[in-house]
Amino acid sequence: MKNDIDSILNSMFRDGRLNMRSPRANSAPRDSGGSPEGPLSPAAREAEKALESVQSAQLDMAESLQKSIERMTQEARADMEDLELHLKSDGIEARPANNGGSAQDLDQAFEVARQETLAQVLGQEDFVNRLILTFKRPFVAGSSDDAPLSRAALLGRPGTGRRSAVKAITASLGRQGVLKTPKVMELDLAAYHAPGSEKLFVQDLYAALKSGASALVFSRYEDCHPSVLPMVTALFSTGSVPLPGRYAEQKGLLIEVGTALAPGAVSRLPAGGRYLFLLGDSEARLMGALGSVFVGGLEDRLSTGEFTPDSLARIAGAAGKELCLRAEKQLGFRLTVSSEAAKALAEAYDREQGAAAIQQEAQALYRAMSEEKLRRSLRPPLTAELLAPEGKFIIKYRAENVSGEIMPQSPESMAGQAELEQVKEEMSHIVGLGSVKDYILSLEDNFKMQQLRRERGLKAESPSMHMIFTGNPGTGKTTVARLTARYLKAIGALTGGQLVEVTRADLVGQYVGHTAPLTQKAIQSALGGVLFIDEAYSLYRGRDDSFGLEAIDALVKGMEDHRDRLVVILAGYSREMEEFLTANSGLRSRFPNLIEFPDYTAEELLDITRSIVAGKGYRLDPACDAPLLGYYEAMQLTGDARVNGNGRMARNKVEAAELACARRNMRAAEGERDLELLLPEDFGFEEAKGAGESER
For residue 589, what pLDDT band results from cuts at 50, 70 and 90? Predict the structure, then answer.
């Protein structure tokens, strides 16, 4: 028995290792349960069967494990290949930074980056040279792994090349292997303008950090909600953002876990090893919003300069060359640009838009050529010349089947012109208010005058368009405000043109800390358009009305912070509005345009009545004119001027006449009904009934 067990154990192990081969493979063929050494006892036979069962299970387990390892290896290899393809499609190659190169190699790499950037960002050589030093500094002075490589404010007007310079330098250094990737991520802080935007900012920042970008650019901090700004300043000051709750990284996502215990919990988002850039217009404004401590903690504060005429000529030349190449490649036009056209292209520069205005003009020219080829089915050979007599672009072209001229006009300007004509047409149909309409229409001349002064390098100030509409209810204040919003967009003074109507209930909260967010929400919704506050004097109920005063303070601050993107119109009674302007020392100076809406005369009320009647699809019996005129005159003499001198009285009169007309027609015989005519009796003028019937 002992010998049998020893034999079985010996067959299971070879040189101290488990023999995973089947015992059947190691044993000689048996006949009728025998063995080479003779028949086994029943006990040995049972032991052998038990061991064979164990070995078979071990073999199955080993084979399953081997298959799992092979499958996981294949999946990992596929994931890596997919990741590499994804990165390459984004222009990113996963390779380490060349931080260990010699000083000479680094100098050469940064010089290549400088030259490549200067070829793209024209007219800003000093800015580019200083920005190169910002990128180079951590390679010379060294930096810790958990700290940003550099933190800098890039100041200057829009369109002066701040973003383009960062992207060009990062792309060049990434391509040369100095930086890990050539990628730049921008976070527009205006996207976080609403209360409670902290969580959205955290998620977007996490995605930007996970993208592997070498540089992060933060823009439009002026329009960011106050609750998000401290997170931005913390990122620049300490190199990380403290999270507003408990988060955990799960499958590449940042998940809020609340109070639950979770592996991989994070409390901060670090930005170590990246460049951080904040865009702004001036250091003074930056300091006013973020504080002197924040500004003083930046390694660099770089400012773009104004473009010289030579710089603009070079930018226009590059834009013209790009236009010619694109026109030939995409449209088949062999385009030449005259010297006068190149000069006009340079003059398209706008200080508010920067060099982007030149690119937009070139894009409008390309669209015009594309539309002409499509509309007229032009066939090659196609030749064209860009001219600009008296500064107006004309493209003269010749094709196989036709020749002609193109006078480009951007879709935006065409749409704006059409909207402007529509608004003027609607305003001309408003009864009365001649002085009000004249003032609103004069805004176009002032706005265009300031544009011309800027284009010629003269001192120009954006005219204040905040207004106060005073007058009794129903004198057209809201109607004119709506048209004003559309009008300001059509002339280019506003980008949105929407009118947001609010009252005290929309701005003043019910508890401490509620008012400012409400007012800011209203301001944010009106950005690009007009914020219209009806009965604005109700915001001020005396010095003890702390909530109302808080709303006024928030309004004044919002007007200052968004002075180029918001127009505020206050409306109310004349006397009450005068008292309201004393609530805050900054109110009166910010509302230089006081527009009085006079009560309508009796004749104007009659014209309004005719307009309302026509708008409702009715006809006014001429016999109604005299009694209506007498009625309006009498009401204005004997009634409340706040009620009886406005268009609401005319509308109420017409609506009452509609009901009377319906009753009269439903009681009349079928052949005597006129469902469109309003008679004097419908207005309650019984004495004129006979005249009305004769007219009918």
Answer: confident
Q: What are 571's two structure tokens?
A: 């409306």
Q: What is the C-alpha separation between 642 and 645, in angstroms, rounded?
A: 6
Distance CA 461, CA 457 (A): 12
Consecutive H or E run containing 588: helix 587-590
Length of the chain: 696
Q: Reduced to 3 states, what is the DSSP secondary structure of residue 71?
A: helix
Q: Which pair of tokens denotes residue 309?
A: 């005429």
Listed in order, strand segments (DSSP E) in 343-421 are: 382-387, 394-398, 403-406
Question: What is the pLDDT at residue 1?
Answer: 47
Can you tell me the distance from the alpha carbon of 144 to that of 271, in angstroms, rounded to the nearest whole number?
12
Taking a C-beta distance cutoff of 8 angstroms, is the pair 692, 680 a contact?
Answer: yes
Cα–Cα distances (Å) from 191 to 185, 195, 524, 559, in that order, read 15, 11, 11, 19
Tens of pLDDT, residues 534-566: 888 888 877 777 888 888 888 888 888 887 788
Question: Taking a C-beta distance cutoff of 8 angstroms, is the pair 149, 275 a contact?
Answer: yes
User: Distance between CA atoms of 555 and 581, rounded to whole angstroms?
Assistant: 13
In this structure, the number of other CB atoms found within 10 A of the CB of residue 547 comes to 20
* DSSP secondary structure code for residue 32 in this structure: T
Burial of 89 (0-12, 13-18, 19+ CB in 10 A): exposed
User: Residue with structure tokens 């009169």?
Assistant: 653
Q: Cα 50 to chain center, whole Å?
A: 74
- Compute the distance between CA of residue 615 and CA of residue 621 in angstroms, rounded to an integer: 15
Residue 233 to residue 278: CA distance in whole angstroms: 10
Dihedral in degrees, nearest 10, Cα atoms 335, 347, 492, 518: 110
**Pairing between β-strand 150-155 and β-strand 184-188 as defined by DSSP bridges:** unpaired
CA distances from 266 to 244, 386, 417, 556 (A): 11, 59, 54, 40
Q: Are 385 and 335 in contact (CB under 8 A)?
A: yes
- The interaxial angle of helices 625-638 and 602-615, nearest 10 deg, is 130
555 in Cβ contact with 520 (< 8 Å): no
With a CB cutoff of 8 Å and minimum separation 6, the contacts of 527 are 223, 496, 562, 565, 566
Q: At what angle do helices 283-290 and 229-238 cross, to 10 degrees?
A: 110
**Amino acid code (one letter) for 683:** F
Please give the structure tokens belonging to residue 426.
Answer: 């609607």
Mean pLDDT of 363-389: 88
Q: Count other C-beta atoms under 10 Å from residue 309's C-beta.
A: 13
Contact predicate 276/148, CB 8 Å: yes
Confidence at 34, pLDDT banded by 50, 70, 90:
very low
> What's the predicted TM-score (pTM) here?
0.53
Q: To which residue do tokens 């439009």 refer? A: 220
**Mean pLDDT across the chain, nearest whole number?**
79
pLDDT tens-digit map of 569-581: 888 888 888 888 8
Pairing verdict, β 275-280 and 215-219 = parallel
Q: What are the tens digits of pLDDT across the range 296-319?
A: 889 999 999 888 888 888 888 999
What are the start-end ranges of the H helices in 396-543? 411-428, 434-455, 477-490, 504-507, 515-526
CB proximity list for 394: less than 8 A, separation 6 or greater:
386, 387, 388, 405, 406, 407
Helix axes 434-455, 477-490, angle to 10 degrees: 20
Q: Of 546, 553, 567, nearest to 488 (Cα)?
A: 567
**Contact call for residues 347 and 454 (beta carbons, < 8 A):** no
Strand partners, 596: 470
The reported pLDDT for the residue numbered 150 is 92
What pLDDT score does 70 carry?
58
